[in-house]
Amino acid sequence: MSAAYTWSHLIDDTTAEVFSTVLSPRRVEDFQNLRAERADSALDRRHRFVLASNYDLPFFNDSSNGFVRAVLGGISFAGTLTFESGQKATVLSGQDSNINGDAAGDRTIRNLGGVRNTGSTVTALTNSAGQVVAYLADNPNAEYIRAGIGAISNSARNTLQLPGIENLDFSVFKNFRFGESRNVQLRADLYNAFNHPQYTPGSVNDVTPISTTAVGQVNTVNATNLSNNNFNNPSKVFSSNPRIVQLALRFLF
Asked: Which one, of 144, 149, 146, 120, lies nearest residue 132 by Cα?
């Protein structure tokens, strides 16, 4: 059995340097204010605890009865328990608010006194000539206010905390020995053995990329996402990473 706990704090001014990600766009919002890009990284997983074990059942391995030894001996269990802080996402307005021609949506205006993790659209206020002169928050008590066209955002990168990982992977396997060095192994692997819903981007077991379709709904403040209750609602956007059972037969030599 082995256990490991890590505490870390990763800060950067950009995470994805080649392609823009949905949850944390790579491009600088204002090239004349690079200091505003310094924030918690999208890769910042503040806490991580992993407990791994492997246990060989000692029963029947030395039984004088060959049938009992073959059928009931050679059984092993293995498991990995993981607790990990969730990924952080950048809250976006979903439009080119600062009008710099960048297709990646700019960040929101952040109301630090607002109700945490809530969002609001805005209504444009115009003068007698029909020109937009200001924006009025539709919900002034929200934390994240959508930045209208021409508005300047004040929100930092990666301020929205997504759910963490609470996962158990478990395996049970039976070895049938043939001679001194050959084994046939029958095994069952249970990924997310307790079938605990974990609404995280990607997989709780590896770094397999996922389609970006609809992912931006969870961190973009606009009328559609707010009315559909998609903003900051990972259970409506991400997979629950349900239990997967894998059966395998292996020949070891």
From this structure: 149
Sign (positive or negative) of CA dihedral 13, 18, 22, 23: negative
What pTM value is reported for the model? 0.83
User: In 3-state terms, what secondary structure has residue 195?
Assistant: coil
Spell out the residues 6+ positions from residue 99 whose beta carbon is closer than 8 angstroms to its own.
149, 150
Structure tokens at 179: 């001679």
List the chain domain ranges.
2-252
Distance CA 217, CA 119 (A): 12
Tokens of 172: 């049970």
pLDDT digits (tens, 9 = 90+) for 80-103: 999 999 999 999 999 999 998 887
Lowest mean pLDDT among 64-78, 138-152, 165-179, 223-237: 64-78
Three-state DSSP at 218 gives: helix
Q: What is the DSSP string of 91-109?
A: -B-SS-TT-SS-SSPPB-E
End-to-end CA distance of the chain: 26
The residue type at 197 = P
The answer to whether the CB of 8 falls within 8 A of the CB of 43 is no
